[in-house]
Amino acid sequence: MSESKRIVVVTGGSKGIGKAICLKFASEGARVLFVHYDPDEQAANDTLSLLNNMGVEAQAHKLDVSSFEAVEAFFTRVAKEYQRVDVLVNNAGITQDGFLMRMSANQWNQVLAVNLSGVFNCTKAVIRPMIKERSGRIINISSVVGQIGNIGQANYAASKAGILGFTKSVARELAGRGITVNAVAPGFVNTEMTEKLPDKVKEAFLAQIPMGRIGEPEEVAETVYWLASSGATYITGQVIQVNGGLYM
Ligand code: NAP
User: Fold this and answer.
1) Residue 190 lies in a domain
2) Three-state secondary-structure class, residue 124
3) What stretches of the chain show up as alpha helix (H) in DSSP?
4) Ligand 1 pocket, CB under 6 A
5) pLDDT digits over 113-144, tens only?
6) Does a structural domain hold residue 96?
7) In which order are the strands placed within the sheet that holds 87-90?
8) What H or E segment, with its residue span, contains residue 182?
9) How far apart are CA 112 and CA 138, in angstroms?
10) Whose CA is nearest to atom 38 of ligand 1?
11) Ligand 1 atom closest to Cα of 13?
12) Catalytic residues
């Protein structure tokens, strides 16, 4: 095992954007550890097979990013095994849509717990080894919805806007330690998350996209990969938009 191979942790790596991010890092030969949460592990197993077929060292772990204790235990194990983490991509996210009038406290709390507390939990757990190394890249996946809001997604928009404030604060805290922290805000991307939207909502989104098409997970993965590359050494606290012009 080459010590020079980067250790990359991706949350929500089993499908969609997270899967594309795992495959992109695997293409450089990085060691890819991803976490997912669905008890049906089919998607995670399929992604793991793809990574193994690329000849990289990869691991899949079932982990709920909203559990502070479970996340801490996971990163403690990773630090023991690898001594460092080079890149953390906080990608795991869920939706529980509904108009505010009808949104339950449970819908609110679940989305905030996974999308925002999950980012806090993983980032807090990973910075100790990164500070020790005086190096690291943290990339948080926000959303255009966190920037402009969306009907029926008050909980999701709040979680994604929260990620932006979190990213900028932590970027300031860690800039002197050799760690960059940035956010990527995708627009409307072709994954299971958007597949389940009603056709009317999809059409309304499409009509607002100057490029006239939905984005692909790989297009988001390219930006995440670049933020973790030697091309982005002087970039921190930024929000990079990958949205086909949906919001400028
Ligand atoms: P997706 O296809 O639904 O995938 C979500 C991933 O998150 C899955 O791997 C899922 O694993 C994992 N996950 C969910 N809950 C988790 C938990 N509690 N702990 C750990 N992992 C968990 O979604 P996607 O569209 O690729 O979205 C990825 C990220 O991009 C999300 O943060 C999303 O908000 C953001 N985003 C997406 C779009 C879009 O248009 N698709 C636009 C803007 C932003 P399991 O299935 O195993 O639970």
Assistant:
1) yes
2) helix
3) 16-26, 42-53, 68-82, 105-112, 118-133, 144-148, 154-174, 192-195, 199-207, 217-227
4) 11-18, 35-38, 44, 63-66, 91-94, 114, 141, 143, 186, 188-189, 191-194
5) 999 999 999 999 999 999 999 999 999 999 99
6) yes
7) 58-62, 31-36, 7-11, 87-90, 136-141, 179-186, 239-242
8) strand 179-186
9) 20
10) 189
11) 9
12) 156
For residue range 54-97, what is the model confidence (pLDDT) as tens digits?
999 999 999 999 999 999 999 999 999 999 999 999 999 999 99
Cα separation, 168 vs 126, in Å, equals 17
In a domain, 247, yes or no: no
- Given a contact cutoff of 8 angstroms between Cβ atoms, the answer to whether 112 and 67 are in contact is no
For residues 36 and 60, the answer to whether their CB atoms sit within 8 Å is yes
Tokens of 205: 């989104």
Q: Are the CB atoms for 214 and 190 separated by under 8 Å?
A: yes
Other CB atoms within 10 Å distance of the CB of residue 74: 21
C-alpha 95/C-alpha 90 separation (Å) is: 16
Position 1 in a domain: no
| Count: domains in the chain | 1
- Find the domain containing 106 and state its range: 7-242
Q: Classify residue 116 by its DSSP letter.
A: I
State the pTM of this model.
Answer: 0.98
The CATH number of residue 178's host domain is 3.40.50.720
Helix (H, G, I), strand (E, B) or coil at 15: coil
